[in-house]
């Protein structure tokens, strides 16, 4: 199995606060890896460091063998890494299709014309159930629609590694099931590697081959969903007892 992403000794300080501390793990190409942890554990910070939205204080991030540290978000994106934002960040005044066009033209896919970008984006809209909303301003979508637009934009960049930050938060149980199906289908048909932050533990366990668990910025354990479910450290973090 080829390693697509290598995180080594990754640290991030915000002033006196240590948001991430010596985090190391690998993501195999084509796998789905979950990231679990309580509020403030450092999950979103991890994505921001990988995507180039913030700079690590220490450590290394390698994607397909090359270092991402110091690259800008647009450079990281062009290499094939895209993320969604926990607090959705569409261009609200642009239509759903225009949001995807931007991604398709400026991401790894690098479509040269709007027509070619739109043609590629059409399939992504279908995949995410957004085709009927293509001409609506992004601001008119429901929360579930905006979450799907975040994913659609990440996919439309032509990324190989897609990082999803709580795309199931706030969805109804039925919507969560639909989202799981959608993610499995996208993973298969587009040969994606997925890194998935989720608080809905059951959903994460159903989706992922491996899960890493962060606690106060440290990676406390990693393994298969079964291993994670039976890990005493995880149980103490999630079910009360102090570590
Ligand atoms: N830009 C920032 N400036 C200062 N502190 C920050 C910044 N971003 C995150 N933090 C702090 O770093 C810690 C980790 O935050 P992060 O957003 O990564 O957690 P998280 O695991 O994603 O939490 P949640 O489940 O609530 O989304 C928190 O204590 C947070 O307050
Ligand atoms: Mg977060």
Please describe the structure with a list of short key phrases separated by commas or semicolons.
243 residues; alpha/beta; Rossmann fold; 6-stranded mixed sheet; 4-stranded antiparallel sheet; 9 helices; 38% helix; binds adenosine-5'-triphosphate; binds magnesium ion
Q: Can you describe this structure?
A:
The protein is α/β, with parallel strands linked by helices and 243 residues long. The chain has one domain: P-loop containing nucleotide triphosphate hydrolases (Rossmann fold), CATH 3.40.50.300. Helices cover 38% and strands 26% of the residues. It contains 9 helices and 10 strands. The strands form 2 sheets. It has a 6-stranded mixed β-sheet with strand order 6-7-8-3-9-10, sandwiched between helices. A 4-stranded antiparallel β-sheet has the order 2-1-4-5, covered by helices on one side. Helix 3 packs across helix 4, helix 3 runs parallel beside helix 5 and helix 4 crosses helix 5. The radius of gyration is 18 Å and the shape is globular. The protein starts with a strand and ends with a helix. Bound molecules: adenosine-5'-triphosphate (ATP) and magnesium ion.
Count of the domains:
1
pLDDT average, as an integer? 94
CATH homologous superfamily caption: P-loop containing nucleotide triphosphate hydrolases
Ligand set: adenosine-5'-triphosphate, magnesium ion
Tell me the layout of helices and strands.
Blueprint: E1 3-14, E2 17-28, E3 32-36, H1 43-51, E4 58-63, E5 66-67, H2 73-79, E6 81-83, H3 96-106, H4 114-127, H5 143-156, E7 161-165, H6 173-189, E8 193-197, H7 201-207, E9 210-215, E10 218-223, H8 225-229, H9 232-239
Parallel strand pairs: 3-8, 3-9, 6-7, 7-8
Antiparallel strand pairs: 1-2, 1-4, 4-5, 9-10
Helix pairs in contact: 3-4, 3-5, 4-5
Magnesium ion (MG) binds at residues 43-44, 86.
């Amino acid at each position: 199995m080829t390693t697509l992403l290598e995180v080594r000794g990754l640290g991030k300080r915000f002033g006196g606060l240590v948001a991430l501390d010596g985090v190391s793990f690998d993501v195999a190409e084509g796998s789905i890896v979950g990231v679990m942890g309580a509020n403030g554990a450092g999950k979103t910070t991890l994505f921001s460091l990988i995507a180039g939205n913030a700079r690590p204080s220490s450590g290394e991030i390698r994607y397909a063998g090359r270092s991402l540290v110091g690259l800008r978000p647009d450079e990281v994106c062009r290499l094939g890494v895209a993320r969604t934002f926990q607090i959705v960040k569409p261009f609200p005044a642009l239509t759903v299709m225009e949001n995807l066009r931007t991604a398709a033209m400026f991401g790894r896919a690098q479509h040269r014309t709007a027509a070619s970008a739109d043609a590629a984006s059409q399939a992504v809209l279908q995949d995410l159930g957004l085709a009927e909303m293509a001409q609506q301003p992004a601001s008119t979508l429901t929360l579930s629609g905006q979450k799907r637009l975040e994913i659609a934009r990440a996919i439309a960049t032509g990324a190989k590694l897609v990082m999803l930050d709580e795309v199931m938060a706030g969805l109804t149980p039925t919507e969560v099931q639909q989202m799981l199906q959608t993610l499995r289908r996208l993973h298969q048909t587009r040969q994606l590697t997925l890194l998935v932050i989720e608080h809905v533990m059951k959903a994460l366990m159903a989706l992922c081959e491996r899960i890493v668990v962060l606690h106060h910025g440290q990676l406390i354990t990693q393994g298969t969903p079964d291993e994670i479910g039976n890990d005493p450290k995880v149980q103490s973090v999630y079910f009360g007892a102090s570590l």
